[in-house]
User: Fold TVP38/TMEM64 family membrane protein from Cohnella lupini.
Amino acid sequence: MLSDWIKNLLESTSLSGFYVLLLTFPLTIVQGVLGLFPYTILIVLNISAMGLTYGLLTSWISSIIVANLVFYCCRSFFSEWFNSKIKRKEGRYEKWQRYFELYGVWTLILLRTLPIIPNNVISLMASVSSIKLYAYFMSSVIGNLSQIWLYGIISSSILIPGRDTKWLIGSYVAFCIVVVVAFFISQFFKKQRGNRITADKQLHL
Assistant:
């Protein structure tokens, strides 16, 4: 059972409460760089050691730090190497690269929320795209919040079977509605801005 494995790991390391971050934060860096295991495991470890609220909060903050650290390092020091690596897998990720250019941060939020592409690959692809650092930071804040919130709902039902998670589910649904509405509003204004630019160009012809 997953819960037994987690219990054994925590007992073997003798870490409890916030001290579990001495184990999970370095593993978050490994996961963010190499993607050797699902981040869900670390979220579950944090929840087991710190409870649902602090477990989700520390998982969220850790994921934001690591996502931006990986993005910055990839773009600043390894951009050429990662760009060549992406090109070798162009057929596999071409669709998402195109969505990056079309929808920017919204594509990143979607990819962070749903387990479509590993977190390390998301950071890698973003680093060789035209997305700006601030936009990436905001997408990691919102996208990782969505991801961890969703995983928290799933894992809490396993780790804390008797806990009422209706408030967690309801608030997540409300959060998703706000994000979707914000997406459509941003696309509307983007289209309006594009129409104005086109009209201005036609006037100067």
Observations:
- The chain has a mean pLDDT of 80.
- Residues 164-205 form one domain.
- The first helix runs from residue 2 to 13.
- The chain has two domains: 2-163, 164-205.
